[in-house]
């Protein structure tokens, strides 16, 4: 049975992709509550600036979630510097907007490598340690796109469905163990990831701090499904009961059937897509770093 009212203070929390956005906001919220936080990011210089801004002993480490060696090196470094990881938050993710038939092979591979492979790597690196210690909590950041379908981000939607399914399946495997899992499903969050994406009718977009508070609550309660905002759970359950034509009509009313398609060519989305395309593909690791090099980089901070 999931534990409730777990104290945040003193917990060692590792967050992937936390140099900016939801990960950064979550690191701030947890640090303020007394957690010992480590953030990992492929952009180590930005991560170091973020950690310095957060203060409270926040630790920044290099991390490429698509590289299993990098992930294991990150987990090793966190535990060497801060102690055993109590909470692992698999947050790293990207969301290029592109019409499916126009999407490149590299874009598809990159999204699955980061959004799904990164979560798998994080879970496989940390869960065995948690099982051996007899306690632990893994929080995977998905999206409401993991429950519904959204044109304009077909591959992203597929990756978030994968994260939701993966988390549920692993939770079932670990049901009788002391390790808990949570999956967080926010609507549009105003970070760089959603620059230029318009709101949909009836669902107000969130700030990263809103999601961070929901994640903190998940740490405290170990609740499995975390909808952000909570009202979207009811909207989803109502939607799945509708006939297909009625669901399509609802999509038109809320603009969810075309909002992202209309934003694809906006300057804001193009700027974001350009940055994402500059990331290394899964076949081209960020720097070819070894576990030893990652540890040495951590020691230099």
Global shape: globular
Number of helices: 11
**Assembly state (oligomeric):** single chain
Helix-strand category: alpha/beta
What would the average pLDDT be, to the nearest integer?
84
CATH-derived topology: Rossmann fold
Largest sheet: 7 strands, parallel
Radius of gyration: 19 Å
CATH architecture: 3-Layer(aba) Sandwich
CATH superfamily: NAD(P)-binding Rossmann-like Domain
Describe this structure in words.
This protein is of the alpha/beta class and 301 residues long. It has a single domain, classed as Rossmann fold. It contains eleven helices and seven strands. It has a seven-stranded parallel beta sheet with strand order 3-2-1-4-5-6-7, with helices on both faces. Helix 1 packs across helix 6 and helix 4 packs parallel to helix 5 (154-173). It is globular, with a radius of gyration of 19 Å. Residues 285-301 have low confidence and may be disordered.
């Amino acid at each position: 049975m999931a534990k409730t009212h777990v104290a945040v203070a003193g917990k060692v929390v590792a967050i992937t992709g936390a140099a900016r956005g939801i990960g950064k906001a979550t690191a701030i919220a947890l640090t303020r509550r007394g957690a010992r936080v480590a953030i990992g990011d492929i952009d180590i210089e930005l991560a170091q600036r973020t950690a310095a801004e957060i203060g409270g002993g926040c630790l920044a480490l290099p991390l490429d979630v698509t590289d299993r060696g990098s992930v294991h090196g990150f987990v090793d470094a966190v535990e060497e510097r801060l102690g055993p990881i109590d909470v692992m938050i698999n947050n790293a993710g990207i969301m290029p907007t592109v019409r499916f038939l126009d999407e490149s092979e590299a874009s598809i591979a990159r999204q699955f490598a980061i959004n799904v492979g990164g979560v798998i790597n994080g879970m496989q690196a940390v869960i065995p340690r948690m099982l051996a210690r007899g306690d632990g909590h893994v929080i995977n950041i998905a999206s409401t796109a993991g429950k519904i379908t959204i044109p304009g981000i077909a591959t992203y939607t597929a990756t978030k469905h994968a994260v939701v399914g993966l988390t549920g399946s692993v939770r079932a495997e670990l049901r009788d163990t002391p390790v808990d899992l949570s999956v967080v499903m926010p609507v549009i969050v105003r970070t760089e990831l959603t620059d230029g994406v318009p709101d949909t009718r009836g669902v107000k977009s969130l700030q990263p701090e809103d999601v961070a508070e929901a994640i903190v609550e998940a740490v405290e309660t170990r609740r499995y499904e975390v909808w952000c905002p909570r009202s979207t759970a009811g909207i989803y359950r109502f939607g799945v009961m509708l006939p297909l034509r009625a669901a399509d009509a609802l999509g038109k009313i809320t603009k969810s059937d075309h909002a992202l398609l209309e934003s694809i060519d906006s300057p804001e989305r193009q700027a974001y897509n350009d940055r994402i395309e500059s990331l290394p593909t899964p076949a081209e690791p960020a720097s070819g770093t070894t576990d030893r090099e990652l540890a040495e980089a951590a020691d230099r901070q």
